[in-house]
Amino acid sequence: GENVEQHPSTLSVQEGDSAVIKCTYSDSASNYFPWYKQELGKGPQLIIDIRSNVGEKKDQRIAVTLNKTAKHFSLHITETQPEDSAVYFCAAAFGNEKLTFGTGTRLTIIP
Amino acid sequence: NAGVTQTPKFQVLKTGQSMTLQCAQDMNHNSMYWYRQDPGMGLRLIYYSASEGTTDKGEVPNGYNVSRLNKREFSLRLESAAPSQTSVYFCASSLQGDYGYTFGSGTRLTVV
Description:
The complex is a heterodimer of chains A (111) and B (112).
Chain A: E1 4-7, E2 10-14, E3 19-25, E4 32-38, E5 45-51, E6 56-59, E7 62-67, E8 72-77, E9 86-92, E10 100-101, E11 105-110
Parallel strand pairs in A: 2-11
Antiparallel strand pairs in A: 1-3, 3-8, 4-5, 4-9, 6-7, 7-8, 9-10, 9-11
Chain B: E1 4-7, E2 10-13, E3 19-25, E4 31-37, E5 43-49, E6 56-57, E7 64-68, E8 74-78, E9 87-94, E10 102-103, E11 107-111
Parallel strand pairs in B: 2-11
Antiparallel strand pairs in B: 1-3, 3-8, 4-5, 4-9, 5-6, 7-8, 9-10, 9-11
C-alpha cells in the first residue's frame, strides 16, 4: 500500500518569512495530493490539492509543487502570519482508494 | 450546509461501557471514514465505507465496529471501552477516495 512520509515534524518561522513542508510517497500510481490544516480543537480542513497532471498550484499565499519523478510534493506558505500556526497534513491517493496521510507538521509562527 | 456533523462532542466512559459515535453528512458523498488522533500522532484510520452498503477495516480496527446506516450516516461503536481508546475521533466524508475529505469537528472520548 501507499506510504507517505512528512518532514519536518515541527517548524518555527518568523512572521513574514516563508515556510516549506515536504512529503514523499511510495506508490507511483498515486495521482491526488491534498494538504490539510488543523487548528487547535478543530478537524482538519482541506486548504489546497494538486493532481498529477500539473506541477504547481497556487492559491494566494499558499502553493503546492509536485515532482512525480522523484515522488515528492511540498507545501509553500509565503508571508506567514500568526493565523498560519497550526498542524499541517499531507496525503496521497490513487483513483477511488482512500487517502494515506503523513504524520503531520506543527507550524509555529513567531511574532 | 452543515457538512459533517458528529455527536457527541465530548464523552467520558467507564472501562467496559459501550457507546456509539454518530456521524452524518449532507453533501451526498459516497465515502465515509472514521479516524482517531492521539497526542503527537497523526490520523489513524479505524474503518471506512467506500460506498453505501460496504465497510472495510483500516489501520486500527480492533475494539470497534461500524455501521453504514444509509448514504448519510456512518456510526462507530465501542462495545467494551478500554483506556487505550481514549482519543479524539474524527469522521470524514468524500465524493470518492481521490477527492478532498470533509472532516467533522471531532469527539473527545475519555475512558477511565
